[in-house]
Amino acid sequence: MTPNDGTGRTEMREPGNAPPAGNGLLAVLMLATFIVVFDTAAVVIPLPAILEDLGGTLDMATWAYGAFVLVFAVFLLPSARLGDRYGRRPVFLAGMALFTLASLACALAPSIAFLTVARGVEGLGAAMAEPAAFAMVNTAFSGKAKQRAAGAHRGAFAFAALSAPILSGLITWGLSWEFVFSLNVLAGAAVIVAGIRLVPDTRDDNGPRSLDVPGVLLGGLGVFALAFAVIEGTRLGWSSPPIVAFIVAAVVLLGLFVLNERRADAPLVDRGLLASRRFTAGNLARGLGEFASLGLFFALSHLLQVQLGHSALVAGALLMTIIAGAVIVAPVSESLTGKTDVRLLVIPGFLLIAAGTFWITLSSSHPGWLFFLAPLAIAGAGFGLQEDPTAATALHDVPPRRSISGRNISYVVYLLGITAGVAVVSGVWQSRFVANAKDALGEAGLPPAARDLSADLSSGGVSGDPAANITGPGADRLREIVHTAFTDAVGTALLSCVAVAVLGALVAVLLSPAKDDRSDSSTADGTTSD
Fold first, then answer.
1. Where residue 145 sits, what CATH number does that domain have?
2. In this structure, are 203 and 245 located in the same domain?
3. What pLDDT is stored for residue 438 in this prediction?
C-alpha cells in the first residue's frame, strides 16, 4: 500500500461556512484516518497467523482481507452523499462506532467466516467515517489553518501506510494477531469520546439531494460478483456453473451500472469529472499502482512466513524495504511534480515496479531473506516515483467546488485497485499451485499420501500450509514437492503484478500536461505546489 491519500498536493475546498476549528478536532480526524488506513494495510501481515489459529484456506484468507476493502469501496460514495445531505458529524460518529465495534468482533472472532463478516462491517464503518473526516478537514478550517490541517491529515494517512507492515508484524509476533484489531478498538473509542465534544456538523447544501440507490446496488453487486468469480474460481472450477454465472452477472450488472450513471439525475459518480482525460487516466494509473502494491504485499507476506519460515516481524521488516525505497525516492518525485512532464516520472516508476517484481519471480524455491532486499527496494522506488505525480495529475483539473467529490472518486478507485490486486493474485496463485502440485504429485513412485493430498487440493482448496500435516514414509519428498509448487505459483501470480505495472506505464502516456500549463506548477485551487 503506497503512502498517498489520493490528493497529491492539491488543496481541496468546498463552498460554505463552518465554525472555527482547532487542534483538538484536527487530532480526532487524524487519528480516525490513521486507524482506517492502518487497518487497510496492516491485516496482510497477520493473515498467515489468522489462518493457523482459525483454520481455513487461501480463498477464505482472501475474503477475510478483501471483505473490508470491497465494502469500503462500494459504500464510500453513498456515505459521502449522506454526510453532505444530513450532516457529517452523525455519519462520522456512527461510522467510527461501527468500525470500533466491528474491530472488537474481529479480535474475538471464533472462526474465519465470523472474521470475514466482521471485516465487512468494519469496511462499512470506514466508508462512513473516512469521507466525512476528509470533508471536515476541508470545511471546518480556513486560511493557513486549513493548509496546516490538510497537510497534517495527509501525514496521518501516509504514516499509517508506512508503519502498517512493521507495526502489525511486531504486534503479531510479540503478542498475537488479535491485538492488531484491539489497537483499532482503543483508538476508535478515543476518537468517539473526543469526537462527541469536538466534531462540528458541516454539510453541503449545494450538493445533490437524492441518493443513487440503483447505482449503489448495481455497482456493489457487480464488483462483488466479479471478485467472487476470481477468488473462488480455483476451488469451484473455472468452468463450473456457479463461476460462469457470477462472471455473466458481473458483466451484466457493471454494464447496467454504467448505463445508470449516464442517465441518472444525481449519479453516484460525477460524470463531469470523468470527461477530463487526466482525471480518468490518472485515477486508472493510481488503481493499477495499488493493484501491484497490495498484490505484492499479499503474496510475499504468506510466502515469507508460511513457506520460508520467517516470523511476522521479519516478514513485516522485509516488506518495509518497499516502503524504504518509496520514502527515499518520493521527495525527488514530489519536488519535480508540476515542474516537468509527469510522464517522465510515472512511466519509469511503473517500469521499476515491473522490474523489481519480475526479479522476485526469478527466485529459487528456497531464497534467503537477503535475496528480497534489492528487488523490493527497486519496486519501492518505482512506487515512490509514480505515486505523487499520478495522484496530483489526476486531480489537477478538478474545480475547487468539486474537489471533495473528485477526491472521493479517487479514493474508491484506489480501494478497487487494492481489491483487484489481492483477488487476482490470490486466484492465479491458487490455480497455478493446484495445477503444479497435481502434476508433481501424479509422478510414479510417490507414497499413497500423494494421491490423498492431490485429492484434498482439488476438493478443499489451498490451506495456509498444505504440507503441514504430511507424515509417514516419503513425507520429506512430498513436502518439498508442495513447497516448490507453492513457490512457483507465487511467482506466476506475481507476473500479474508485472503485467499490470507495464499497463500502468502505458496508461501514463495519457497523463501529458495540457498545453496551457506545461510550465504551471499551481494546483487546482490556485495555490502553488511548493
1. 1.20.1250.20
2. no
3. 73
